[in-house]
Amino acid sequence: MALRCSCRWPWSAWPRTRPSFARNTPSLCQQFSTQEINPQICVVGSGPAGFYTAQHVLKHHAKAHVDIYERQPVPFGLVRFGVAPDHPEVKTARSPRCAFRGNVAVGSDVTVAELREAYHAVVLSYGAEDHQTLGVQGEQLPGVLSARAFVGWYNGLPENQALAPDLSCDTAVILGQGNVALDVARILLTPIEHLEKTDITEAALEALRQSQVKTVWIVGRRGPLQVAFTIKELREMIQLPGTRPLLDPADFLGLQDRIKEVPRPRKRLTELLLQTATGQPGADHRARAPRAWGLRFFRSPQQVLPSPDGQRAAGVRLAVTRLEGTGEAARAVPTGDVEDLPCGLVLSSLGYRSRPIDPSVPFDPKLGIIPNTEGRVVDAPGLYCSGWVKRGPTGVIATTMTDSFLTGQTLLQDLKAGLLPSGPRPGYAAIQALLGSRGVRPVSFSDWEKLDAEEVSRGQSVGKPREKLVDPQEMLRLLGH
Ligand code: FAD
Ligand code: NAP
C-alpha cells in the first residue's frame, strides 16, 4: 500500500543535516538487498524520536516498512504540543513506506505483546507524558499547576483544555530554571498582540488577554552557574518587549573570576546573566516597563503556602540553600533559613517524566526510563526504545535526533545479524483487525492532512498560522469516523 507519510515540523531548532525520507544510502541499502527481507517495523509515538527512528530505518533499508502508532489523532508529539507557539518553523519529509496510525493508544487499545507478535521489531518512542512532582505540602492546592499542564493548555493538548488557570493574581512563581520554565514565563508576559499572530489556542489567548500577572519569579535551588536554560531562551526573555529583568547583583558576586574556568556555552550564558544583573536599570528605558521577570537563586521549594481561608495557594516557602561542590555537579543543601514568596500562581517546572506503557515492558521507576543498552530494551529481543523514554526527559530536538538514529542503527544491525524473526510478519494487517474488533478507528496521514487544512483555514480567518483543533471527538467527526 503506497501510503504517504509526510511530517511538517513547526520547529525552531530543526537540525540542518536532515536526510530526506525518500532517498536511500546505496551502500547500506545494498547490504540488505541481497537478503529477501521485507521487515515490518512498528514505532510507538510520533514525536521527534518516533519520526527520526523511522527516518533512519527507511533511509538505510530499502524494503523496510514502518508504521507509526500515536495515541493522539494528530502527529508530532511535543513539536505540536510542547514547543512554544512563538517558536515556529515548518519543514517537510516524505516516504511512501511509512504510515501514520493515529488515535491508537498503545497499552490500552493494543498491547505491546500484540505489536511484537505482528512486527519484526517494535520501537517505543512514546516520550514523557507526566511531570516531576514537587513532593511538598500544599502541592495539591488550587493555584498550583505543573508547567507541563500549562504548556499543554496553551498548545492545545486535549487532556489539558479544562485547566482554566487563574491568572487574576499579580505574581506568579515558577519553580525550576530550565527552558520550559522560560517558555512559560515568556508566554505569561508576552504582549498579547504578539501571541495573537501565533498558533496558541484561542481559549489560552482569551485567558491571557484578561491576565493580571505582572511579575514572574523563576526560582532555582542552585546558582547562576547551574541554570538549566540556554542562552537563546535567556536572550528572548531579556528582549521581551514591555518587561524588565529583576536580578540581584549579590547573587553574582565573585562570578566574574570563576567564569573563566567554565566551558564555553556556559561561559557565554553566565556572561549574559552577569551583564543583565549588573546593568544600570536607571539608564534603561525598560526600567518603567509594566511587567517584570526575575531569577531567584539558592532557593528550594519547601511548602506551598495556603491563603487564610485555606482554599488556594498564596505563596511558596523556600528553603535557602548553599552549594556543596562546584560546577555542574554542585549540590544544593539547605542552610536552615527559609523565605516566603507571596504569589497567586505556582507553576512547577522540575521536568517531565515517562510512564510505564504496559506491564510486559521493563521500566525503571527511579530513572523514569525503559532500561536499555544502546536502544535495545533489556531482556526483550525485538523491542527497542528511543527519545525521552530511552534516556530521560532532557535534550532538544537535535539530541533526540542523534539518539533516535542510534536506535535505528542498532535495530538494523540486529536485523542484519539475524537476531530478529526471519519469517514474514503481518504488520498492520493483523493490528487493523484487532483494532476493528475493539471499535478503534485509526487516523491515517491523509486524515491528518484534512485536519491540518481545517486548522489552517480556521487560522486564516483570525490572522493566525492555524487554529488548532483541541477536541479529539470533533476531529473524528470532521473525518466522518
Ligand atoms: P514526544 O515529543 O513527547 O513524543 C512522544 C509521542 O508519543 C507523543 O506524540 C505522544 O502522544 C505519543 N504517545 C505517548 N504515549 C503513547 C501511547 N501509549 N501510545 C501511542 N502513542 C503514545 N527542543 C528544541 O529543540 N526546541 C524547542 O523549542 C523545544 N521546545 C520544547 C518545549 C517544551 C515545553 C518541551 C517539554 C520540550 C521542548 N523541546 C524543544 C525538547 C523536545 O520537545 C524533545 O527533545 C522531543 O520532543 C522528545 O521527543 P520524543 O519523541 O521522545 O517525545
Ligand atoms: P530541565 O532542563 O531538566 O530543568 C529542570 C529544572 O528543574 C532545573 O533547574 C532543575 O534544577 C530543577 N529541579 C529539578 N528537580 C528539582 C527539585 N526537586 N527541586 C528544585 N528544583 C528542581 O527540564 P525542562 O525545563 O522541563 O526541559 C526539558 C528539556 O527540554 C531540556 O533539555 C530543555 O532544554 C528542552 N527544552 C528546550 C526548549 C528550547 O530549545 N527552546 C524549550 C523547552 C524545553 P537542578 O539543575 O538543580 O536539578
Could you please describe the fold and organization of this structure?
The chain starts with a strand and ends with a helix. About 30% of the residues lie in helices and about 20% in strands. Residues about 1-35 have low confidence and may be disordered. It is globular. By secondary structure, it is of the alpha/beta class. Strand 13 and strand 14 (about 315-325) form a beta hairpin. NADP nicotinamide-adenine-dinucleotide phosphate binds near residues 132, 181, 226 and 394.
Put the structure in a nutshell.
The chain is α/β, with parallel strands linked by helices and 481 residues long. The protein is built from 16 helices and 20 strands. Strand 14 and strand 15 form a beta hairpin.
Number of strands: 20
Measure the end-to-end span: 21 Å
Helix count, DSSP H or I runs of 4 or more residues? 16
Poorly predicted sequence stretches spanning 5 or more consecutive residues: 1-35
Query: Which shape, going by the Cα principal axes?
Result: globular
List the strand order in the largest sheet. 8-16-9-10-12-11
Strand content: 15-25%
Query: What Rg, in angstroms, do the CA atoms define?
Result: 24 Å
Question: Which hetero compounds are present in the coordinates?
Answer: flavin-adenine dinucleotide, NADP nicotinamide-adenine-dinucleotide phosphate
Structural class, from helix and strand content?
A: alpha/beta
Largest sheet composition = 6 strands, parallel
Oligomer: single chain
Helix content: 25-40%
Mean model confidence by pLDDT? 91
